Amino acid sequence: MNLQIAQQTFIVCGATSGFGYGTAKALLNDGAKVIGVARQDDKLEKITNQYQGNFIPLTGDLTTQETIGEVASAAKEHDIDGILINSAGPPAKSFAETGIEDWDAAYQNLLRWKVDLTQKLIPHFTKKEYGRMVYIESASVKQPIENLVLSTSIRLAVVGMMKTLSQEISGQNITMNIIAPGSHETPAIERLIKKKSETDGLSYGDARQKWINNIPVKQMGDPGKLGTLAAWLLSPLSEFVTGQVYAIEGGNVKSTL
C-alpha cells in the first residue's frame, strides 16, 4: 500500500527497539524521512547506516527537559508531519509492592514528558494546519493486566489527555490516536513473563508457554506488523480517524467498547 508519505518527515520516539523500531522501519520502507529518538548511540548509528539520508539520529532521554527541547526544535527545523510518542513502561508490580516513589517515577516516565512534548508540538501542527500524533500505550487501558497497576493507572491519564485534546483541536487536519498493544515480542513482555515465573514458581520457559496459551490467537504479536498500523495512522490516509484507542492484543480484551 502506498501511504503517501514519501515526501513527509516524522519523529519516532524509542526508535531503536520494539514498537518504535517497527514503526520507523514501516515509515522508512515507504519512503519517508524519520528522526529517530533513543538513548543508545550505537543502535541509532546502525539504523542511520542502513537508511542513509532518510534517518536522522537524535540521542537523548525523553524524560529530560533537554531532550524534549531538542525534539521540539527538530520538529520545527524539519517541518515534521507526524510523531510517534513511545517509551518503555514502569516495573511490573502489584499495588501492594509499590511505594509512593514508584508512582512518582511512573508519572515522570509515562505522563509528564508526553504532556510537555505534546504542548510544544501542537503549535507547530496548528500553524502547519496538518499533523498526526500517535501514542503507544498498553492494552491494559482497555482491560487491567496483572502486575501492571502503575502502567494501567498512568496510561489511562494519557488516554484522557488524548481524547480531550483531539476534540479541542478538531477541524484543523490534526489527528491524535493511541495504539494499545497487548503481548508482543518486546523487552516489556519479557519483564512481565519473568515476573510471572517468579510469582508462580515456574521456569521462564514454562511461564512463557502458559502466557502464550492464554492468548486467544495462541501467539505473540509482531511489533513490526503493529508498526504498519502506526505508519498508517501517521499517514494522510488516516484523515477520518481521531481520538481512538486501538487495542492490538490477540483477543484478550473482552470488552465490547
Report the top-level CATH class of the largest domain: Alpha Beta
By DSSP, the count of extended strands is 7
Shape: globular
Could you give the order of the helices and strands? EHEHEHEHEHEHHHE
CATH topology of the largest domain: Rossmann fold
CATH structural architecture of the largest domain? 3-Layer(aba) Sandwich
* Estimated helix fraction: 40-55%
Per DSSP, the total helix count is: 8
Beta percentage is 15-25%
CATH superfamily membership of the largest domain, which one? NAD(P)-binding Rossmann-like Domain
Number of domains: 2
Derived from helix and strand composition plus strand pairing, the structural class reads alpha/beta
Overview in brief:
The protein is α/β, with parallel strands linked by helices.
Describe the structure.
With 257 residues, the protein is of the alpha/beta class. It has two domains: 9-182 and 222-248, NAD(P)-binding Rossmann-like Domain (Rossmann fold, 3-Layer(aba) Sandwich), CATH 3.40.50.720; 186-220, no CATH class. Helices cover 46% and strands 15% of the residues. The protein is built from eight helices and seven strands. The protein has helices spanning 18-29, 41-50, 65-77, 100-128, 149-168, 187-200, 204-213, 223-233, and strands spanning 9-13, 33-38, 55-59, 82-85, 131-136, 174-181, 244-248. It has a seven-stranded parallel beta sheet with strand order 3-2-1-4-5-6-7, sandwiched between helices. Helix 4 links the parallel strand 4 (82-85) and strand 5. Helix 1 (18-29) crosses helix 8 (223-233). The longest helix is centred in the middle third of the chain and has 29 residues, at 100-128. The chain is globular, with a radius of gyration of 18 Å.
